[in-house]
Give the backbone structure.
Amino acid sequence: MSSAHLSTGRLNVGIIQEQARKQLLCLLEKCDGPTAIVWDESLEGPIGLIAKYSLLNVVKPYPLRGGNLNVPSDIVNVVFITRPQIHLMDLIAENIHSEDGQRPRKQFHLFFVPQKSLVCQKKLENRGVFGSFTLIEEFKCDLFPFDNDLLSMELSGSFKEFYLENDPTCLYQVAQAIHGLQKLYGKIPKVTGRGCAAGKVWELLERLSREEEENKGTSTQSTIEYLLLLDRSVDLLSPLVTQLTYEGLIDEIFGIECNTVNLPARNFHDLEDSITTLSLNKKEQIVLNSGEELFAEIRDKNFNGIGPVLAKKAKIISSQFDEKHRDKSVQEIKQFVARLPHMLLTKQSITKHTTIAGMIKEVTDSSSFLEALEAEQELLNCIGTDKPNAYIEDMIAQQQPLLKILRLLCIQSLTNSGLKQKLLDYYKREIIQTYGYQHLPSILNLEKVGLLKQQQSTRQYAVLRKALRLTVEDESEIAPKDISYVHSIYAPLSVRLAEQLVQSTGWQGLNDVMGLLPGPTVNSVPSNILSFGRRNSVTSEDSNSEPPKLVMVFFIGGCTFAEISALRFLSQQEESNVEFVVCTTKLINGNTFLTSLMENLEST
């Protein structure tokens, strides 16, 4: 699919893609002769968003694995493209040692993404392969363009590294990424944020900016008016709540990786296709971004509003195709033929998304999904949060997947501002007796980062829920007026903070509740000069009204598709004078967020 859609937003994200592609091609041009790329597998998808393999002029990509390299003997250059991580250096060393004595001898090159690491280079020296490299370069790509309003660093372990392992490296990478954006789009004049990680990123960013100004003087005016740094620790609840938007549910149920979801191919082909053509295990790779007109329209809707939209679209396209049976002039026939390619694409798109929606509906109509959702929504409304939850107890007794249980348990802990020690010990004992002692480290990890904790005297969630309207009853899912539609009843705290910031009073109106949120507040500009205002009416006498201000929201520690949908919803409101663009260290859902913090999960 074309990447032209990246240039259609207020922030031309296509510039980032083009710059990264040129840089990668320049690095590969330094390798003379037939070249094979060996990828760190975590980078294969992100770099695929920048350049398809066919453009890289390489023989074939190979995943980075231990043992023999298994690259054809006629390949002259082997290029390792990898994150600077110690365990990957061991795999590279094994690959190079497996080529000892082979003829002709290959030339090895190493490209670190986004920067070199002295520790990794020392590891390669210790393994005796550092001298084998002809080139060791940096591929300085911090952010990968996912859509015209969405960028991700794809750092899967950023939250764990900082909050569990006390490793701030990822925060320096975040600061470098923002600094890189400022080089492209100008220095962002106003910065606000909340949380410990946000504070440290701001300190690093200021230092980088000072160094830049000393070397090059003042920078150009920024396209981005405002930067909001949101530390994931400020809102641990929102990633755990079930996403109920169309894109969010695709991610919850099937998993979206780098704009791609893999679904059973048999669902997308006619029944007459033979078994030999469509094996039971074959997957259909489906790209999901705003380059597809229909998906751009439905991605952010609550799933209950998808059916009517698809039915209406199918009816319209059917009537358009029926026009060919009517008597027409030559001019009308020409017009019909000109519209035909777009009509065929639309028909394919409707068929595809009707199939995906059907697959989602099978899950969302199931009793297990509905019961879990009901239990979750009761907890969000502070119903029965201070006692053993019958549904969680039943799931443990039935030995349901541990991840599903821990997700609900963390929601209970967060909505109750912690659990009484007796109740917390009870849950831990039940889980360990049922699933085994090997899961104790996982539970301890969740306690260390604050997902599970002992009850505190102040009921933070109860106060925040009331002050910020975190739960909204009877909100329309089909024609919503509030961001809570993304979870049917729950408005993500992170997006409520963004919403409050761009209102006339900013965070000043939250002085009573901001103290309940962890970490410091970052503010580079007095809160009384935010100057967002409201969008002028179309009927206003001032036809030259200013365009909406561009606000970048940077989630440090990951964000969900539901949060992105909620921010898009705010941008689209008539009274809004703001457009949001989202950056994140990683796109996550409740399962991937918890999995990144857990040990020994594969054994359940």
Residues 536-543 have pLDDT under 50 and may be disordered. Residues 330-364 form the longest helix (35 residues). The first strand starts at residue 35 and ends at 39.
